[in-house]
Write a structure and sequence with these properties.
Length: about 280
């Protein structure tokens, strides 16, 4: 049976088991799309990625990103985890900025000590939610209309619909209704008033068994930063916590550099070995 180098990387943490894991399969040219889907489902993780040679001469590598049941053009924590795995396996970038090729195009990644950060891709859809969309999300999160400070489409591949609450405490007390929110990608953010982090974030999206909460979500944090920094609601830089409600301690570092929003965190490899895949 064919064997492929494999790593499982914990993303947005410098301590194992406190971030968001991603399965990374190296040298995946021989794998069919169907087998990539099957392996992703088997891992029981939110995402798995498959490293391939780039087709764009300016890219350092190409990646296909899967979550259970679908392929994603872009996702944040798989981008950072894949880059970490590629570098750890001996990948040599062509310049000081690493260039990843994926379904959303080319994504730039930079290193600052132990932190890897990606440049947030352009939003595919922005602007406020419709009254019906907002009412459904408000009900699905168990909130009242006056709890919502602001709201926005934050679609950067995953079609995030985001709401801003008054406080991190409100974010942490949410008990989502999986029936009302079925089929939606919903992000929630609220400010901390003290401590070492500035915001608390939670992310809910469809999973194999209904609604899933993601431990730490790069794509959502990227889109939230574009919205909140762009509208003057958020300072720059800031640090967001995510995963608290799940017993994790993800930390997302957000900075602005000219027109770019950079979203990053530490990564640590938890498992390495080979994946036996195929007939």
């Amino acid at each position: 049976m064919p064997q492929f180098p494999f790593r499982q990387v914990d993303v947005f943490t410098d301590r194992s088991l406190l971030g968001n894991p991603v399965a990374v399969v190296h040298e995946a040219e021989q794998l069919s799309t169907a087998l990539m889907h099957a392996f992703t489902n088997w891992t029981n993780l939110s995402e798995a990625t498959f490293l391939l040679p780039p087709t764009d001469p300016t890219a350092d590598y190409r990646v296909r990103i899967f979550c259970p049941g679908r392929e994603l053009p872009f996702a944040g924590h798989p981008t950072l985890g894949t880059c970490h795995a590629w570098l750890e396996a001996g990948g040599q970038p062509k310049s000081h900025v690493i260039v990843q090729e994926c379904g959303a195009g080319l994504v730039r990644i930079r290193r600052d000590g132990q932190v890897l950060s990606f440049a947030a891709p352009p939003l595919q859809r922005s602007g406020p939610l419709s009254p019906d969309e907002l009412a459904r999300i408000t009900a699905g999160l168990g909130l009242q209309p006056h709890d919502i400070v602001d709201h926005q489409w934050c679609d950067n591949g995953p079609g995030w619909q985001a709401v801003l609450l008054e406080s991190a405490d409100q974010v942490l007390t949410i008990k989502p209704d999986p029936q009302i929110l079925a089929g939606l990608d919903v992000g929630v953010i609220g400010p901390h008033t003290s401590g070492q982090v500035d915001y608390e974030v939670r992310a809910f999206f469809p999973g194999n068994s209904g609604l899933t909460e993601d431990p730490v979500t790069g794509s959502l944090n990227a889109a939230l930063a574009q919205w909140l920094i762009g509208s003057g609601r958020a300072p720059e830089p800031y640090i967001a916590a995510q995963g608290t409600a799940l017993g994790r301690a993800g930390r997302v570092h957000v900075t602005a550099d000219g027109a770019d929003i950079w979203v990053g965190g530490s990564c640590t490899t938890v498992l390495r070995g080979v994946a036996s895949l195929g007939a």
